[in-house]
Amino acid sequence: MISREDPALDSLSSLVERSVFSAPVFDIHTHLFDPAFGSLLLWGIDEQLVYHYLVAEAFRYHELPYDAFWRLSTRQQADLVWKYLFQERSPLSEAARGVVTSLHRLGLDPRERDLPALRKWFADWKAEDFASRCLDLAGIRSVCMTNSPFDDLERPVWERGFSRDPRFVAALRIDPLLVAWPDAASRLRDWGYIDCSDIDGRSMDGCRRFLVDWAKRIQARYVMVSLPPTFRYPDNGPTSQVLDGAVLPFCRESGLPLALMIGVKRGVNPALRLAGDGVGRSDLSALEHLCGAHPEVRFCATVLARENQHELCVLARKYRNLHVFGCWWFTNVPSIIEEMTRMRLELLGLSFTPQHSDARVLDQVIYKWEHSRRVIARVLAEKYRDLACAGWRVSEAEIQQDVAELLGGAFQRFLGGPC
Ligand code: RAT
Ligand code: ZN
């Protein structure tokens, strides 16, 4: 038996830290694109600064009307965010600190507060080379995009076809089908999949054909949707009807998991645009019913409200067709990542995926993964220390194996294949 003061425990912590920092990660949910998508792949200092997490924070320090801000060019918006969050005060928030970490790891010094010089540095890069630089610095082996056929900028790229970068894998995003059926139906009508927007057997057949075609076209690894806290299942509303009529049968037949991100209140302050979404507590009995009624469908889930995290873990203990993942959006801050990761390890062992980056700008993978790895390493080391005190010592190889599970291995197995 080992005591808590044993010096061996210190070396255990550095071993864990080394393993967590050197393990390649599969980043299972981002908003990044294969470089072949051209300007849809965002990168560089201006895009970092106009990240909606930072825009929301910058608005707290000035009186500029929302509309006036949105009328500015990206560069002018970035100037303002820089001024309010990095020049006039210290960048203490998680998203602001993130810019500092990413710039530093790229070899730049944001403390100089020289935005023109930073812009000049970025201007010399080509997207493909910069993508490799960022993925290498973040230790990422594979990135999952968010791919929506309903997006008018993205769809034509898939329709034209392009040669895929194997590091960027696809996920089929279907929010309009489940949260805005009338709009989705009119698109499906335009594309020849359905004749009328009634949710009946015929239109659900068309909807399934649409899912089959797009999953194949993009080689989707899973199907995904973000849902509001008011999400209920089963009920008589269009969300349940389209789930039952098309999405769940498609997932069952194709074997693709359905990833649910639950708890976002869209447009709480619409004037803030993308930065205007909020959070609400969800009723997870919807997820319980989905998992229970459809044991042959695999579900992945993350929830936005801190208050829902414990019950999500308990649900995953009841249903092995449920995989818990990520610290999403407002929970992606060190204090909450720490408590969520600790709780998940305590309730689920290694059968979950602690984090995804949700990066929208390439450079962000550097900070998102560095910051998360630090917290994951800290919590994991604490758990191995507790285990050592209980009488179980782990070898370096065992630690590496556990870390590989957490950083993509468990998810990959849940998907049922290599990524
Ligand atoms: O985290 C974010 O950037 C959000 O705006 C959302 O995109 C969220 O992650 C989602 O995928 O719905
Ligand atoms: Zn996202």
Explain the overall architecture:
This protein is an alpha/beta fold. The protein has a domain at 30-34 and 145-324: TIM Barrel. Helices cover 52% and strands 9% of the residues. It is built from 18 helices and nine strands. The strands form two sheets. A seven-stranded parallel beta sheet has the order 1-2-3-4-5-8-9, sandwiched between helices. The protein has a two-stranded antiparallel sheet with strand order 6-7. α9 links the parallel β2 (140-144) and β3 (168-173). α8 (127-138) runs parallel beside α17, α15 packs parallel to α16 (334-348) and α16 crosses α17 (364-390). The longest helix is centred in the C-terminal third of the chain and has 27 residues, at 364-390. The mean pLDDT is 97. Residues 31, 226, 261, 274, 329, 358, 360 line the site of D-arabinaric acid.
CATH homologous superfamily annotation of the domain at 30-34 and 145-324:
Metal-dependent hydrolases
The number of helices is 18
N- to C-terminal separation?
40 Å
Report the major sheet: 7 strands, parallel
Tell me the strand order in the biggest sheet.
1-2-3-4-5-8-9
CATH topology of the domain at 30-34 and 145-324: TIM Barrel
Going by helix content, strand content and strand pairing, the class is: alpha/beta
CATH architecture grouping of the domain at 30-34 and 145-324: Alpha-Beta Barrel
Strand content: 5-15%
Give start-end ranges of low-pLDDT stretches: none
Oligomeric assembly: single chain
